[in-house]
Amino acid sequence: MTELTSLILISCYEWSFIGRFICKIWRIFFDNSLSMVLTTLETVHEKLIRLNVDGLKKIKNINWISIFIIIVNIMVNIITTTIWIIMQKHLMEINDMVIIVVLNICQCFCFCEYILLISYMKWMIYIIHEQIPERKSCLSTFRDMYLEVIECLHQVNRSIYGVPAIVGFIGADVAEIIFTIYGHLLFPRDYINDPHLVMPFIALLMKTVNVIVLYTIGDATEKEVNRMSLVLHQRSLIEKNPRIKRQIKFFLLRRLHEHYHFELYGMCHVNIRQLFNLSNIAIGYLVIQVLFKLNK
């Protein structure tokens, strides 16, 4: 059991670095795809502006909490990185410190970029939903814009950020949470140069918040996308044109068979229920290890 525990902790420690490295490499290969997605979203945004959409001026339903957390995350990363450099400058080589700092900063900005991009697409879908019952423009126009945004969302989660989000934003962060709780807080080692455990607590808080924000925004985006069925049903109740009613029924039937799931790379479902499952697995493992350590 001791060997298994050591192997898992070493794997968690190594994965926290390997996941960040894979995240950067993968992101470089799909940079052109991301540019195409941003161009498409810009085109949709311009169409909404030309339609005089009121929601663009009021800027409703933007996830300000996520934006605030991102700003705080960047500030905390800069502060903790500076403190860590001061504390470790006599214990580590300069080259190793530079590599670790670069990986942490790139990981932070990559995560923030992804969250902002998903929040932006969720907001655009919300604006489209709000305009459909108003009957100010042709229904097919909003339908086409909606499908374009959904396709961009699929592309972002399937190829551009699919693997980085799984191995970096989820895998590396969860591995670091487990390693920090077990190796620094519950059973700290003698060689740890932080008697008050300030840095482990900050790192644990940051990684936990990042995972919660990712799963929360994924769950909220999934619900917003699937709200289209309700919006179309409301429009069908007030619509008197038989042709438009047929369009609504056809699109409702299509949405029924294309229920959206916020998935990364087509295999990792991101919502609140999956977050609870992931938390139960991590907490269960830590409880087993603590009981084994205490009864040793």
UniProtKB/TrEMBL annotation:
Keywords: Cell membrane, Membrane, Receptor, Transducer, Transmembrane, Transmembrane helix
Domain of life of the source: Eukaryota
Name listed for the protein in its UniProt record: Gustatory receptor
A GO cellular component annotation in the UniProt record: plasma membrane
Biological-process GO terms, alphabetical: sensory perception of taste; signal transduction
The UniProt record lists the keyword Glycoprotein: no
Cellular localization per UniProt: Cell membrane
Protein's job: Gustatory receptor which mediates acceptance or avoidance behavior, depending on its substrates.
The family this protein is said to belong to: Belongs to the insect chemoreceptor superfamily. Gustatory receptor (GR) family.
Alphabetical list of InterPro entries matching this protein: 7TM_chemorcpt (IPR013604)
Spans traversing the lipid bilayer: 64-86, 98-117, 160-185, 197-218, 275-292
Bilayer topology annotation: Multi-pass membrane protein
Principal localisation: membrane
Keyword Transmembrane: yes
